[in-house]
Amino acid sequence: MIRDFGTLPGRGCVRRATISGHGLTVSVITLGASVQDMRLEGTDHPLVLGFPTLAPYLDEGRYFGAIVGRYANRIAQGRARLDGRELHLDRNQDGRHLLHGGSDGTSTRNWMLAAHEPGMVALADHLTDGHMGFPGNMLIRATYLILPGPALRLTILATSDDETLCSFAQHSYFNLSGAATVGGHWLTVPAEHWLPVDDDRIPSGPPASVQGTHLDFRRPVRLDQRLGGPAIDHNLCLADRRRHTPREAATLRAGRLSMTLRSTEPGLQVYPANHLRPGAPGIGGAAYGAHAGIALEPQLWPDAPNHPGYPSAVLGPGQVYRQVTVMSFHDHHSG
């Protein structure tokens, strides 16, 4: 089912496509190719944070459910060297750093609805050479497909006609319980290392062991044990390079529901919505406050172009960037 979701000034109508199958129903809007709603049969609340109208997505709902890029996370000082060139990128974080591809990154753009079937929706975007300071005309296609399980598989493909930087992330805020916060959720991430960062959330050096830190989620941790301590907004290192097939990146559980996240990406940014303050009503009518959801963002490591030891973010001309991320859901009461 496709319907209009509102109008972006100068960017046309935002469409909302709903797909369903195997007990899972997902709605995706063309703004940012964003997951706007996600429902599991037998559960009376959504599994992600979202808004029933377009306006909040332009304000407090920025990044909610979106695909962020062409470079997810941060690049320090909006600068990077590529093939002997120094790139000067959009500095949309406090005027100092690039964040999520810049002020006109893919999360802010009205993607094209490319294909739609009962259990699948595909969206596409085109970024021009020089867009946000990045070289190369880039074509992007994102496909959401519901699989048995049920599971939602996201495949992101991108190509460029010039050497460029490329890293995308899906930025849904998950809440499996429907409670006001995710404090009662249990999180597991099989990461042995994390990236220490400075006050601007820019990586400050090589990976460090999670042992003895508030970022050790190798065994299940109830989030309310960590939310009152040092702020969590960090990349956990799953691997030192991208993988061809998805591997387990995280498990989130609340009560009878759980979600297992698998991805090809070598990093997982964990961010429990520290910044949220009640504003526009979300789906269901309640406004979202701090820790109302948790973002689990599979991606390359932040600021990788400025750290030779990090996984490479370089996409050559004619090469194909391919990310596969799978979100699998289980109702433990139904067997």
From TrEMBL:
Keywords: Carbohydrate metabolism, Isomerase. One of its GO terms (molecular function) is aldose 1-epimerase activity. It comes from the Bacteria. GO terms for biological process: galactose catabolic process via UDP-galactose, Leloir pathway; glucose metabolic process. Belongs to the aldose epimerase family. This is Aldose 1-epimerase. The lineage of its organism: Bacteria, Pseudomonadati, Pseudomonadota, Alphaproteobacteria, Rhodobacterales.
